[in-house]
Write a structure and sequence with these properties.
It comes from Streptomyces antnestii. It holds the Pfam family TrkA_C. Keywords: Ion transport, NAD, Potassium, Potassium transport, Transport. Strand 9 and strand 10 form a beta hairpin. An 11-stranded mixed β-sheet has the order 3-2-1-4-5-6-7-8-11-9-10, with helices on both faces. It has 225 residues and is α/β, with parallel strands linked by helices. The N and C termini lie far apart (55 Å). It folds into 2 domains: 117 residues, Rossmann fold; 85 residues, 2-Layer Sandwich (Alpha-Beta Plaits).
């Protein structure tokens, strides 16, 4: 897979290193000469250019990329790169970094963004996820379809503890994608049972999040009593 990363700062280089280790082809683009540190990620291609310019993206052969990552520290730049990648070059997957959570609402399909990653929001979500049981925590937002990756740790008193996955009437536009049980990561089947303490990861429409939280947090006594 060929991936172009706009922004060769610490974030961009870190992403590039991970992708290269996984066998992908990576191009790092930055307009600042001081950011071009080939020795830090020698396996990557490097391009000194402005990723907001069509001529630069032509030189980068963006049309050959499977993924473009807009990872600069400037939200305006990330939006422009995302829009150009999607509309001018038809890149199948565009991931954009959100630096200021106040700008998060802009990072959607109208600007060519498939996945928006807000570092401040993700960090706060991970803190919430570490300390909360029974509360739905939003980890990641997907622009297409207005869906989110959300997590909930099933509380011991939940009415669903001990219930087969296939017997649960999940809300519409909701999919259970992973169960984390201790050190195990399970791809849930219809026959798997939910257990108290399970970390459940869902892809769910935002409009269904409250309904999903209510379903998972309902107490046994509320059902039996």
């Amino acid at each position: 897979m060929r991936v172009a990363i706009a922004g060769a700062g610490a974030v961009g280089r870190s992403i590039a290193g991970e992708l290269l280790e996984n066998g992908h082809e990576v191009l790092l683009i930055d307009k600042a000469p001081t950011a071009i540190s080939v020795e830090r990620v020698p396996q990557a291609e490097w391009l000194l250019a402005d990723a907001c310019e069509i001529t630069s993206l032509d030189e980068a052969a963006l049309q050959r990329c499977n993924v473009v990552i807009a990872a600069t520290g400037d939200d305006k730049v990330n939006l422009v790169v995302s829009l150009l990648a999607k509309t001018e070059y038809g890149v199948p997957r565009v991931v954009a970094r959100v630096n200021n959570p106040k700008n998060e609402w802009l990072f959607n399909e109208s600007w060519g963004v498939d996945v928006a990653v807000s570092t401040p929001r993700l960090m706060s979500a991970l803190v919430e996820e570490a300390v909360s049981v029974g509360d739905l925590v939003r980890l990641l937002r997907f622009s297409h379809g207005d869906a989110n990756l959300v997590e909930l740790t099933l509380p011991p008193e939940s009415a669903l503890a001990g219930t087969r996955v296939g017997d649960v009437h999940w809300p519409e536009d909701t999919s259970l994608v992973t169960i984390i049980r201790g050190t195990r990561v399970l791809a849930p089947s219809q026959e798997d049972s939910l257990e108290a303490g399970d970390e459940l990861l869902f892809v769910a429409a935002q409009a269904r999040e409250e309904q999903l939280e209510d379903l998972l947090s309902v107490r046994r006594e509320d059902v039996t009593g």
